[in-house]
Design a protein that fits this description.
about 325 residues; Isopropylmalate Dehydrogenase; 2 domains; twelve-stranded mixed β-sheet; 13 helices; 12 strands
Length: about 325
């Protein structure tokens, strides 16, 4: 099995130390991984956090497997200065170079999957990054429209998909459509079967309004948009229920009835996921020809370099990318 490629993330954030923590835990099991760029940054991050992480510079990803048991393999000459908690333009440029290189390795087939460490979108924009986030960047890199890349947040207790993502709450109702729900529902169902081994996935769709609109008293999006979309998905043979009032959809008894919840907006999906699985939450991109995951948290500049960041989400992201890559290879 080919190794995973890990992009560095913003070097002023917690990404570098979490990559070191993940190597120390040998998080990927039988699948080796290599960091792409930032050898000096990673050495400094390990030292700052008191981690014993030898760095092995490699010139080809095929060398990662041999190096991995004794040292963290790092591929690429991209590097910079480690300034934890102090993001700057040079660091953003390093993060973008690492992301570009790692993505190219996965698309070419040299790497089995991609794990992206957290970036600061505002800083990336200052060095020419024009996408809303890494998910949209990866869709473009794979020559797909942005709507074909679907963000799913996954943890031990819950999988949830926000159907609209980085929008003001006031813009969500006008962004929703039956076509959007159907298109993304198809992608989610297919990806759960292909990448997670759930041959007959069960989808539960959240309502937009309180009490699922209460027969139109609190909004008509359920009747006009969500229910017709559910009917179309059912007609295609997909096991989907809803619209469910969101205040009851994430209870323990409700969660055992579905494999993934489709939420209408960002926080409707991320609040329960982070409440339940903050230290093990993974952002996985569905619908791509490549396996891509990321820890479901940000750069945490305020605690970078202090070994206060919990490595669980990074370790879970690496394990999930390895599992998806292995399932696809099989």
């Amino acid at each position: 099995m080919r190794p995973l490629a890990l992009s560095l993330g913003d070097p002023a954030g917690i990404g570098p130390e979490l990559i070191c923590e993940a190597w120390a835990a040998r998080a990927s099991g039988d699948v080796p991984f290599a960091a792409i760029g930032g050898a000096g940054v990673l050495r400094a991050a390990a030292a700052a956090c008191g981690l014993d992480v030898p760095i092995a510079a490699i010139t080809d990803l095929d060398q990662a497997a041999a190096a991995f048991p004794a040292s963290l393999p790092v591929l690429g000459a991209e590097d910079g200065t480690y300034t934890p908690g102090l993001p700057n333009k040079a660091g953003a440029a390093l993060a973008l170079a690492s992301l570009d290189h790692a993505t190219a390795l996965v698309i070419s087939g040299a790497a089995a999957g991609l794990v992206t460490a957290p970036v600061a979108k505002a800083h990336l924009a200052g060095v020419g990054f024009t996408h809303p986030g890494q998910t949209e960047f990866l869709a473009a890199a794979c020559s797909l429209p942005a709507e074909d890349a679907v963000m799913m947040l996954a943890g031990p207790s819950l999988r949830a998909v926000p159907l609209t993502v980085h929008l003001p709450l006031s813009a969500v109702p006008s962004a929703l459509s039956a076509e959007l729900i159907v298109h993304r529902g198809r992608i989610v169902a297919a990806a759960l079967a292909r990448d997670f081994g759930i041959l007959a996935p069960r989808l539960a769709v959240a309502a937009l309004n309180p009490h699922a609109g209460e027969d139109g008293r609190m909004g008509d999006e359920e009747a006009q948009i969500i229910t017709p979309a559910i009917a179309r998905l059912r007609a295609e043979g997909i096991d989907v229920t809803g619209p469910h009032p969101a205040d009851a959809l994430f209870t323990p008894r409700a969660r055992i009835t579905y494999d993934v919840a489709l939420a209408m907006y960002h926080d409707q999906a991320l609040v329960p996921l982070k409440a339940l699985d903050f230290d093990e939450g993974v952002n996985v991109t569905l619908g791509l020809p490549i396996a891509r995951t990321s820890p479901d948290h940000g750069t945490a500049f305020d605690i970078a370099g202090q070994r206060l960041a919990h490595p669980g989400a990074m370790i879970a992201a690496i394990r999930m990318a390895a599992a998806i890559a292995q399932r696809r290879a099989a």
